[in-house]
Design a protein that fits this description.
By secondary structure, the chain is α+β, with helices and mostly antiparallel strands. It folds into 2 domains: 127 residues, no CATH class; 33 residues. 36% of the residues lie in helices and 10% in strands. It is built from 6 helices and 6 strands. It has a 4-stranded antiparallel beta sheet. A two-stranded antiparallel ribbon has the order 5-6. A hairpin with a 4-residue loop joins strand 5 and strand 6. The protein is globular, with a radius of gyration of 24 Å.
């Protein structure tokens, strides 16, 4: 719709550029719907999404517009601190999985396409969809690691972004391993105890 990647503020600009390079190599489509907007463009959006009256343009709560649209002078797009990506929610989820490693996440619960640089913040769109809490990296400098996965907050368990809510079972495997170690310990203890003449436990 408006703006270009170059119009975005750092570090959001570098994150989106990295996404544009990574996407085509990994079968992920990346479309820039809206980057930086000037005030006139924000007013035009308000007219389209909120109504054409002075009150609708300048006073109507953003949440009452369809879709939600910030009042002129308050949008993160006007300062280059937000970007809207396409082409659809499915691709947005893949983009989000990549961008979170750069501290970029989705901040609007009902918008799969709206991204901002907010290290440590949860993906509000995924939360709204009931898919758990996925945090943006608090150390975005290094970018994504090849074997990294989104993490469900507080569990250390990988969460599936593009599937139907399936969760990883790494912690269960660790739990079974712990049971195995306990079993070995009991066996050794019993064997030593019998050698020393223990008759009852």
């Amino acid at each position: 719709m408006s703006g270009s990647v170059e119009s975005l503020q750092e570090p959001l600009r570098s994150a989106v550029k990295a996404l544009q390079e990574w996407g085509p190599r990994n079968g992920v489509k990346v479309t820039i719907w809206s980057a930086r907007r000037n005030k006139a463009q924000q007013i035009s959006l308000r007219k389209s999404n909120c109504g054409s009256s002075q009150w609708a343009i300048y006073e109507k709560p953003a949440s009452q517009c369809n879709p939600a649209t910030a009042r002129p002078g308050t949008s993160k797009h006007e300062t280059g601190r937000a970007v809207d990506l396409g082409p659809n929610a499915s691709e947005n989820n893949k983009q989000a999985e990549f961008l979170r490693h750069y501290g970029v996440t989705r901040t609007v619960p009902t918008e799969s396409w709206h991204f901002e640089f907010k290290p440590g913040a949860p993906d509000r769109y995924l939360q709204h969809q009931g898919k758990g809490t996925v945090l943006a990296s608090t150390n975005p400098v290094a970018g994504p690691q090849s074997n990294s996965e989104p993490i469900l907050e507080g569990t250390g368990t990988p969460i599936e972004l593009s599937g139907g809510g399936g969760f990883g079972f790494g912690n269960i495997g660790m739990g079974l391993g712990g049971v195995g170690l306990v079993g070995v310990g009991v066996f050794v203890w019993l064997k030593l105890g019998l050698k020393k003449g223990i008759k009852s436990l």
